[in-house]
Amino acid sequence: MCPVALVLLLGLATLTSCGGGHSANGDQAAGRRSPGAPGELLTADVVFAAPAGIRAWVVTYRSRSAGNGTVEVSGIVLAPPPTVAVPAGGRKVVSFAHGTTGIADICAPSRSTPPLSSAAWTFPLVRAGYVVTLTDYAGLGTPGEHAIYVSGPEGRAVLDAARAARALTATGAGRDVVAWGYSQGGQAVLAAGAQAVTYAPDLRVRGIVATAPLADLPASLTTLQGNADGVGYLLLAMIGLTDTDPTIDLTRSLTQTGRRLLAIARDKCAIDVMTASVGTSISTAFTSDPLADPRFMSGFGRQRDEILRRMAPTLLLQGGRDIVIRPSVTDRVDLRLCGQGTPVDYRRYPSADHGTILAASMNDLMSWMAGRFAANPPPATTNCARTLDIRH
Fold this sequence. Notes:
Layout (H helix, E strand, L loop, with lengths): L4 E3 L6 E3 L5 E2 L17 E6 L8 E10 L5 E10 L11 E7 L25 H5 L3 E5 L15 H17 L5 E10 L1 H16 L4 E8 L5 H8 L5 H15 L11 H12 L2 H8 L4 H4 L8 H14 L6 E6 L7 H13 L4 E6 L7 H17 L19
Helix pairs in contact: 2-3, 5-6, 5-7, 6-7
């Protein structure tokens, strides 16, 4: 029997287990991808325990890994009931990217118990008439390794989830997409925005919403070392990077304490790693400081630089009391995005922390999305009309 763990970290409160779905016919007509191509829908299993007014499927689809190969990715697709008319051009799609749950397959949000508990924050969007996709990311719940905090494959998984929803014709999904991500998912949707034009020209990405985003990986990993569980986040980032860089031998960087934490990360979920890391430090978990090691810092910096580029209009949402993704870090992310020519609407919520930012910003998020999805969207609201002093 699979262990159940409550995860409330750089992500949604998620109960993870080994639950499964129920078989259904994965109807693939509109938006069909050629066999083996990213976005191809592989399976679609109906979730019969979906709330009233919401249809749900656990799906698998193809995406592209950190290399050039395709990988199988799992996730969830939600849609309004068939009694709700499909508009001309298809339903708008919100492709959601979750926060940190871990790297073991049992931590995949699509395996949550009760079913769809990991998707609860997106239900208002479905009831507003949108199709919602929730990717697990490559290697989380499917074969292979989850290269956690590596931006490229995360972003592609977000875009390919929207493609897979189009292939599931029962959803009525069209080409118009807004990508929304929380924490680790903020990194993922910014990566999706940076890649959209070249990687998914068949989609119309109307906007990006990044809530408390892990956008500047080196800066956030540094500030997290002031938190009791900061070593846990740093270890996960090192695992993700070494999954894509075979020249780095992670075990050589770990002490006996670090190897114990690595074993926990491989078998359990992020909450277990963070709990076990409390009381440890860089000096007790690592043979040398990864934040001073060019091998790691160049890789972490690359994840930042690959996503802070010009993209569709972007909404940044940040809590003033967030001690996981700190406001000062997101302030600099705003400046970097503006400097690249991205229209950024940056909103701060002074009383919100890393958990409460979701509820605090939800009404603004839905209003902003409705504007981006409008037939004639208003000019993108931006706070970038100022002199920018960008310091890399």
